[in-house]
What does this fold into?
Amino acid sequence: QVQLQESGPGLVKPSQTLSLTCTVSGGSITTNYYYWTWIRQPPGKGLEWIGNIGASGSTYYSPSLKSRTSISRDTSKNQFTLQLSSVAPEDTAVYYCTRVPVRGNPIYYDYWGQGTQVAVSS
It folds into this structure.
């Protein structure tokens, strides 16, 4: 019954900040034992982990993207957000929000949003 829904602009200009929101229903983002996670898939490439935020608000980022990434949340709206600054065409991808059980072994995503296409172009 948990559902995740991405929202945000589909086109971002180079050097601007990409901002996406994930709205969660059927479960609280403050519930323990889950990481709320952003991943992406560039055209023709595999999935790339961006980062996540835990129930307490702690954040974790991919080393390759950490300098440009900020994940935050609004608990009153049961939403978490992604901001990726200084974007370039290489950031064009389908972006997904997902849920990851903390104790997953191996790690897996148990719920996914439908994904949203973001193009970086002038």
Q: What stands out?
A: The longest strand covers residues 93-101.
